[in-house]
Amino acid sequence: MRTLKNIIYLGMKELRSLMRDKAMLALIVFAFTVSIYSSATVTSGSLHLAPIAIADQDRSQLSERIINSFYEPYFLAPADIDISQMDGLMDSGTYTFTMDIPPNFQRDVLAGRRPAI
């Protein structure tokens, strides 16, 4: 029973000293209110209507399925661009993502090769 009294006494002593330390009290209030609220309301880490463009040099069923896999609300509908436009459109900020699907992509995948996108 004595140890419980000691714990209560020391806890009350810490609370009294905390009430006198305004800087520490302000830090605790900030850490448990403002910091948590701001972390919860910051923009999410997921994409939302990100503009994307695809240079489809293959025009196969597989490339169409890849293009159609970019759904809203994460992406805008993918724009069809020429590969020569890719760098300029990325540099200007028109698109967040661009993708180049090389010629014979489906054929290479079906043959077991690993073509780069």
Molecular structure report:
This protein is mainly alpha-helical and 117 residues long. The protein folds into two domains: 2-41; 52-110. It is 50% helix and 10% strand. The chain has five helices and three strands; from the N terminus they run ααβαβαβα. It has a three-stranded parallel beta sheet with strand order 2-1-3, with no helix packed on it. Helix 3 links the parallel strand 1 (52-56) and strand 2. The chain is elongated and about 80 Å long. The model has no long low-confidence stretch (mean pLDDT 92). This is ABC transporter permease.
Main sheet: strands, sense, barrel: 3 strands, parallel
Give the SSE order as H and E letters. Answer: HHEHEHEH
Measured as a percent range, the helix fraction is 40-55%
β-sheet strand percentage: 5-15%
Pick out its properties.
2 domains, single chain, mainly alpha, 3 strands, 117 residues
In short:
This is ABC transporter permease. It is built from five helices and three strands, in the order ααβαβαβα.
List the helices and strands and how they pair.
Elements: H1 2-20, H2 22-41, E1 52-56, H3 61-67, E2 79-80, H4 86-91, E3 97-101, H5 105-110
Parallel strand pairs: 1-2, 1-3
